[in-house]
Amino acid sequence: MTELKEGEKAPDFTAKDQNGKTVSLSDFSGKRVILYFYPKDDTPGCTAEACDFRDNYHSLQGNGFEVIGVSTDDEKSHTKFVNKYNLPFTLIADDSKEIVERYGVWVEKNMYGKKYMGTARKTFVLDENGIIKKIIDKVDTKNSSQQVLDLAK
């Protein structure tokens, strides 16, 4: 697994969204993209992050951004999450773990001394050409959209 770096082209992917529609990263060509990876639907940190993107969605769009969330949850889980919190953006179901592995966010985690594999919370900010402009490793779940907007200035 290679670690992606700022200045590199973001790997394209094709997967299903919360509506079962096939979506590719290349579908967003010409737009700035906030591609954020999160561990699990409807958990406290992931909900805070998603709701922050929801609450600031119009401001993000006004700055030319589209928001795409990716987790290893399936379409059904994403649909419930989107409906419960009225999320206006795309959530990608990566239940094959192909995308999280390609982006280097499928990592060993440690909770209460127990080691397991899971998704690292990480945000990639892409320009209109799909080039990684910024990688946010330390995501502030309650202010994730502001982190991106601060970088965009």
Automatic annotation (TrEMBL):
Keywords: Antioxidant, Disulfide bond, Oxidoreductase, Peroxidase, Redox-active center. One of its GO terms (cellular component) is cytoplasm. Signal peptide: none annotated. The active site is at residue 46. InterPro entries: AhpC/TSA, Peroxiredoxin_AhpC-typ, Peroxiredoxin_BCP/PrxQ, Thioredoxin-like_sf, Thioredoxin_domain. It catalyses: a hydroperoxide + [thioredoxin]-dithiol = an alcohol + [thioredoxin]-disulfide + H2O. Residues 1-19 have a biased composition (Basic and acidic residues). This is thioredoxin-dependent peroxiredoxin. It comes from Hufsiella arboris.
